[in-house]
Write a structure and sequence with these properties.
- The complex is a heterodimer of chains A (about 600) and B (about 160).
- Chain A starts with a helix and ends with a helix.
- By secondary structure, chain A is mainly alpha-helical.
- In chain A, α9 packs across α13 and α17 runs antiparallel to α18.
- Chain A has five domains: about 110 residues, no CATH class; about 120 residues, Orthogonal Bundle (Cytochrome Bc1 Complex, Chain D, domain 2); about 90 residues, Cytochrome Bc1 Complex, Chain D, domain 2 (Orthogonal Bundle), CATH 1.10.760.10; about 80 residues, Cytochrome Bc1 Complex, Chain D, domain 2, CATH 1.10.760.10; about 100 residues, Cytochrome Bc1 Complex, Chain D, domain 2, CATH 1.10.760.10.
- Chain B is of the alpha+beta class and about 160 residues long.
- In chain B, the strands form two sheets. In chain B, strands 1, 2, 3, 4, 9, 10 and 11 form a seven-stranded antiparallel β-sheet that branches. Chain B has a four-stranded antiparallel β-sheet with strand order 5-6-7-8, with no helix packed on it.
- In chain B, a hairpin with a 4-residue loop joins β2 and β3.
- Chain B is elongated, with a radius of gyration of 32 Å.
- Chain B starts with a helix and ends with a strand.
- The chains are: A mainly alpha (about 600), B alpha+beta (about 160).
- Chains A and B meet through α1 of A and α2 and β1 of B.
């Protein structure tokens, strides 16, 4: 017992001693003492020595109020020789900060003078880290919870090992330079400038928003990316977009390491609205400045091909052997779309496919013309092959290998590709309708017209393949319903009003109050309710099909047969008039109302 | 104790051995506990006055001697110090009035306080008004990087100049 007590009391004493030593004998004190001693041996006269003797270790700090929030930088407590040129060759922490002409330091009479004086700027303005810290672990930001470790020097333990080494180097500090040096072509921040150019050249601006620079809405807002994220996260998000967020559909751009670094530095420099970049003129200049290098003398189409490569179109689309896996195949574009459609779709993708997620890119008009010209030359039809292979080559990208409408890119298409295995739908429609959909395409959707790419017998072959392989059940005997070919109710203001009243009462649950197919029930329904504001689609559907769909429902979908719920033909006529009226252009709607 | 129970014959001998052993253990225990108590007490005393630096640093750089031409008296209001240069001699004089702490201005005859009219001569000696003490002089030194450093933590005798 006594022995145990004695041992315990000694353990307590030792623990006490260790804590005492740790708390009251500071590392920085030893660094300062070492500095005083070495400076003493370096000093030239008695006065300097006397001054050094008078100094004793203390916490040195600079309070910087000029750059954002007040900073308290105690770095010079350990790095006490940082502004003492005699210590240039010493080991850290007693090494003097190097002078560099790139940072604006000048040499006068053989003596360097700093442009950014430490007494005015402090240290963390450029270097980051925790200015108040007095222990290496905390002041250098090695602690994983500190948002800004010493930029370019310290990598935190939680960072991914495979690229942590790439996150070192002075380059990263340019992000901090750019906080004050906002000029676009500032010579001191080449990586930021390069990153800014890449932000446009690689089409990042199409999806991401940075206040004053871009308005993309598909991806996260990057206005404050530098404030929110550490460089390892930025690097990871560019190199492997799905590593952190599995649902991300950002394409993999396979950039060179140098370009990734430039983008990381650029993004790290985004910490809120940058007033030097908010003007619209500057924004426009940006976009127009991003010139793609086209070898002189290249014809329009060749230039278009070059543009597609340089503008990273294949980060989403498929062309040749490059495939972004997000957007449709462009290999037969010359056959399935005409040049007018392409140009309209470039200037505003929503003008042709109202729910398309393709960003509106702001290339110069002539670039669009060149790309269109090139895509227009892609007129080689697919070789003759068995229907199964034709399906795999042309249809499977959207409709899926199994015909279930879950192809590689289906998730990004709206309206979604038809599920060809849904028997209720597939065997309640006449064969002619499917042939028409394949040959003429479906307006307002991503389904193109295949009539130039496929011969009629090929279309028939693919259709038979689909019906036998995916739908599996033979077509039902289809009795034509008793519906009028033309809307018997004349379009008038009262008719439209009545149609709207019925629509609001009966249809909004699925089709939504805006008739955009996003009603509250739409979340649980596949296929999704139609967007009835898709003007191109609505225009392509005749009155007979609308009457049929509303009165007798659409088999294989959630659309019920409204004749069972007491809608008369006249009511449906009013609804059809209402749907037609909301898809008319303003001018013609006024005419209809009169 | 196990030793005592296994050796009943040499009872007296072990008892004699026990006494010093117990004493040693008791002594060790008390040293341990007392040492801990002393360390705690010392720690608490140290914590009463922690090692800390408050506010703006007392020692700061103000630029090269060339920035201050001969014969000038430049008042740095933010730092509350007036840099005097006379030929090769330089000094730093406080510009905080010793009366109620206003910033004194430079006048033809020296310094003048705008608040209550205290007047000081060129060396900071009181010549009029309510100020009870002369303006203190701070230590001015030349740092290794060639910049002047004022140390407001160290006062020097008025009339002490730095030769540059």
């Amino acid at each position: 017992m006594r022995l145990a007590l004695a041992i315990a009391s000694f353990v307590v004493l030792i623990v006490h001693g260790v804590v005492f030593y740790d708390q009251f004998f500071y590392r920085w004190e030893r660094h300062q003492t070492a500095y005083f001693e070495q400076a003493r041996s370096l000093s030239k006269n008695e006065r300097e020595r006397a001054e050094l003797d008078a100094r004793s270790p203390r916490i040195e700090q600079t309070i910087v109020t000029s750059f954002g929030d007040t900073r308290v930088d105690r770095c010079t407590t350990c790095h006490i020789a940082s502004d003492d040129p005699r210590f240039a060759g010493h080991a850290q922490p007693l090494k003097s900060h190097p002078y560099s002409a790139a940072m604006g330091d000048v040499q006068r009479n053989g003596r360097w003078e700093r442009r950014h004086k430490f007494s005015d700027f402090g240290c963390t303005v450029c270097h980051d880290g925790q200015g108040r810290g007095l222990e290496t672990k905390y002041s250098h930001g090695e602690d994983e919870f500190w948002p800004e470790p010493l930029t370019g020097y310290v990598t935190q333990a939680t960072w991914r090992k495979d690229f942590a080494a790439k996150l070192k180097g002075n380059t990263y500090m340019e992000a901090n330079c750019a906080q004050c040096h906002t000029a676009e072509d500032f010579a001191g921040t080449p990586s930021v400038n390069r990153g800014r150019k890449l932000f446009y050249a690689m089409n990042c601006y199409g999806c991401h928003k940075i206040d004053g620079m871009s308005e993309g809405t598909l991806g996260p807002d990057l206005t404050e990316a530098g404030k929110k994220f550490k460089i390892d996260y930025l690097w990871e998000s560019i190199v492997e977009p799905r590593a952190n967020l599995a649902s991300s559909f950002m394409p993999k751009f396979n950039l060179a390491e140098r370009d990734v670094r430039a983008l990381v530095v650029f993004l790290k420099s985004r910490r809120g609205v940058n007033f030097a970049e908010t003007s619209l003129d500057r924004y426009k200049a940006h976009v127009e400045n991003v010139a793609v290098v086209i070898p002189p003398g290249t014809a329009g189409e060749k230039a278009g091909e070059q543009l597609i490569t340089d503008r990273a179109c294949t980060a989403c689309h498929k062309l040749g052997d490059r495939d972004g896996g997000i957007a449709p195949d462009l290999s037969y574009e010359g056959l399935i779309r005409d040049n007018l459609w392409l140009m309209d779709h470039f200037t505003n993708p929503r003008s042709r496919v109202p729910d398309s997620i393709m960003p509106t890119f702001r290339f110069p008009g002539e670039d669009f013309e060149r790309i269109t010209a090139y895509l227009g030359t892609l007129k080689t039809p697919p070789p003759a092959m068995p229907p199964a292979d034709t399906y795999k080559t042309l249809c499977a990208r959207c409709h899926g290998e199994k015909g279930d409408g879950e192809g590689k890119v289906a998730w990004y298409l709206d309206p979604a590709p038809r599920d060809l295995t849904k028997v209720g739908f597939m065997n309640s429609k006449p064969r002619e309708r499917f042939v028409a959909s394949i040959q003429e395409g479906v307006a307002g959707t991503s389904m193109p017209s295949w009539k130039n790419a496929l011969k009629p017998e090929q279309v028939n072959g693919v259709l038979s393949y689909v019906l036998t392989t995916f739908t599996k059940e033979p077509s039902r005997e289809i009795k034509p319903h008793n519906v009028p070919d033309q809307n018997p109710v004349a379009s008038s203001a009262t008719s439209i009003q009545h149609g709207e009243a019925i629509f609001l009462e009966r249809c909004t649950g699925c089709h939504g109050r805006k008739a955009d197919g996003k009603g509250p029930n739409s979340l649980d329904i596949t296929p999704k309710p139609r967007n009835l504001r898709n003007a191109a689609f609505v225009a392509s559907v005749n009155d007979r099909r609308l009457f049929d769909g509303i009165l007798y429902g659409v088999q294989g979908t959630a659309m019920p047969s409204w004749i069972d719920y007491g809608l008369s033909k006249n009511d449906v006529g009013d609804i059809v008039n209402f749907i037609r009226s909301i898809n008319q252009k303003k001018g013609s709607q006024q005419n209809a109302g009169q | 104790m196990p030793v005592a129970s296994t050796n009943p014959q040499s009872h007296t001998a072990t008892d004699e051995q026990h006494m010093p052993r117990r004493k040693v253990l008791a002594w060790l225990t008390s040293v341990g506990l007392f040492g801990s108590a002393v360390l705690s007490a010392v720690s608490n005393l140290v914590f009463i006055k922690p090692r800390a630096t408050y506010g703006q640093p007392a020692r700061f750089a103000i630029g090269k001697p060339d920035d201050f031409p001969s014969g000038t008296r430049i008042s740095l209001d933010v730092k509350r110090v007036c840099i005097v240069r006379d030929g090769g001699r330089m000094a730093a004089i406080s510009t905080t009035c010793t009366h109620l702490g206003c910033i004194v201005g430079i006048s033809d005859t020296g310094f003048a306080c705008p608040c209550h009219g205290s007047r000081f001569d060129q060396d900071g000696t009181v010549t009029g008004g309510p100020a009870p003490k002369p303006l203190p002089w701070f230590k001015l030194s030349l740092a290794p990087n060639g910049e002047l450093e004022v140390d407001k933590g160290t006062m020097v005798e008025p009339g002490t100049y730095l030769n540059v």
